Structure formats: C-alpha cells, structure tokens
Sequence to fold (241 residues):
Amino acid sequence: MIKLENITFTYKNKIALDNINIYIEEGESVAIIGPNGSGKSTLLKLLNGIIFSKSGKYIFDNNEITEHKLRDNKFLKLFHKRLGFVFQNSDAQLFCSTVFEEVAFGLMQMGLPENEINKRVSDCLKLLNIEKLKEEHPYNLSGGEKKRVAIASVLAMNPEVITLDEPMNGIDPKGKKFLKNLLVALNKSGKTIICATHDFEYIEGVFNRAIVFSEEHKIIKDDKYENIINDCEFLKKYNII
Fold:
C-alpha cells in the first residue's frame, strides 16, 4: 500500500531523511523507533503530504504522491480520507470552538449529510469515551483529553491508514493503556497503523514490525517488533534506550 523509494529530505540544508526505502502492506502495524531527531516525525509528515522530498518517490496505493498532485482538490480530499494523522502536539491539531465541531470538521469538508456527520461524531466520541466533553472548548481540556479528541477527529474520517506521532506523550498510565487497546482493536479491524514511539512499556503487543532510524537519519533495521525490542545491546548502541 505504501512504498518509499530512495527518499531523501533536507531541511535548511540539513538531512532529515537519508535515502529511505520502505514498503508497508495493507493491514500492518508498524512502529517507527529511533533516538530524538532521527527523522521519525519527518517521515510521518512526508507520508501525510505535509512535506515533500526533492528526490525519490512516495507511492500510495499505486499513485505517486507529489505536491503538484495534491493541488488537485478532489485527489487531496480522497487522499486525506484514506490516510489520517494524529500529531505529537494535539494543540497543533485542534482549532474549533467545541469538541463536537472538532470531530465533525473533516466530515463537513467532505460534504457528508448532517445525519451521517452526527452519527459518526457520536460513535467516535463514544469510542474514545469523551461523550461528556462534546460541548467543551478543546483549549480547556487536559493533555490526555486533547489527545483523545485529536484521535476521534481522525477516526471520524474512517481512514484505511492511521499514522500517529508519539501518541503516548502527555497521557497518564490509564490513558496509555486505553490507547494501546484501541490501537490493537483498530489493527484487528483491518486498519494499517504506523506509529512513531519511544514509549515501549505501554505498546507491547501492538506492533508486528519495527523500523529503526539512526541519528544519521538512515534506516538501520527493519524486522519483527519483538526481535528488535528484545535486542537491548542494539537499542543501547544506537541510543534508543
């Protein structure tokens, strides 16, 4: 479903991704791990069409994703319907007056009928256990509540691929357990999960594969999640733990 071929991305003349090659099949659950500044967030932004590489190819479901192609509003809407992104910082994602409006925003942009929007929003608020917050202003919520709202706004679009950037950040242990179970359930339902994370304590059992970035912004390992996470010598050598 997703193929990156020889992707290199530079930011202010500094390499953020160095000759990256990745192939992700539909229905996989993939952890993106590596030390801070290794390129994990950059990768997710590239997958979501927020930034574009000047070299290499990004192919999503047999379509090459380019800045020019995403200028086509019809293609852009379809792309963002199929692939959702939960930002590391929820404040960068939330901007509506109420939680209900936040979750409904993407659906309104898709032009769905009001009854369908209301049903999807209600279902997602219930799934994330935030029904009581629907009239609250997102600014007034806790970090964990904001994260749930951000996830609900993505799930409302019913994307096939869900990408998350350090989703456990700012969440208490109970919230982390809830999110872990949610990710497992979403993957079992057929969703492709791609998640940048360093919170290994709370994500056991979520991922079947891990892709490891080095401080040099290269992929240094791509293997079963269990094989990588149990190799303490490797993780210490590359400053991951």
